Amino acid sequence: MGDMRLVVCGATGRMGQALIRAIHTTPGVTLGGAIEREGANALGADAGTLAGIGETGVAVTDDPLPVFAKAEGVLDFTAPAASVEYSVLAAQARIVHIIGTTGCSTEDEEKFRAAARHAVVVKSGNMSLGVNLLAVLVEQAAKALDVDFDIEILEMHHRHKVDAPSGTALLLGEAAAEGRGIKLDEHSVRVRDGHTGPRPRGAIGFAALRGGSVVGDHSVTLAGEGERIVLQHLAQDRSIFATGAVKAALWGKGRKPGYFSMRDVLGLSGNSD
What we know:
Elements: E1 4-9, H1 14-25, E2 29-35, H2 47-51, E3 60-61, H3 64-69, E4 73-76, H4 80-93, E5 96-99, H5 106-115, E6 120-123, H6 129-144, E7 150-157, H7 167-180, H8 184-187, E8 188-189, E9 204-210, E10 216-224, E11 227-235, H9 239-252, E12 258-260, H10 262-265
Parallel strand pairs: 1-2, 1-4, 2-3, 4-5, 5-6, 6-12, 7-9, 8-9
Antiparallel strand pairs: 7-10, 10-11
């Protein structure tokens, strides 16, 4: 069998270019398409040249349909509305759809799950090995420690990030909630301002910092009486997310349709076989 043909959506952005470089250096995959929004300045340009790897013969286009028809997988770190559109096309083409898009609504998630009836969908707030291992540790710690230990999640990203909390922070929050046996949306605190009163018992707090060129820093603090446990991950290069996304695409090749996470890809859940 030949190399897996992968399409990169948002191909001229920072993450898109990291994905193209990851495809270039990973055995078993090849760049099969590069998608950008309608009217983008780079339309028609060689995607490899833009990403700094030299000419690939793959031109950036704003028409995903013919590109998806010839591909085996899609790497998608774009925006919620675009990812929903791509999920429909990927399901129609019966190809693997890797979604790293954050800021998605409950309605968006339902559409991704609907698409997963016809295609392999791997969606995660973070594609790196380290963060997904961190999430497992957070879940275990939250399960082991009772509600006398308050859980706070702090994240920092570059000044251009448009959503908060980050997808990774929410992934870690979900892990903590799973460990506690509670629903995150019923126990999370996203904003504190003014006279807030005492901290609700059992709440999971979030704080977001933005500035500079920070790729992504995340820490989870479990604070008890007289002691604190801090679990932390620092991302220094976007290549870790790109490498994870390509790994997920290769993992999904040939699998039956379904909705998966990076825990499945990394063998950290019961659905990896």
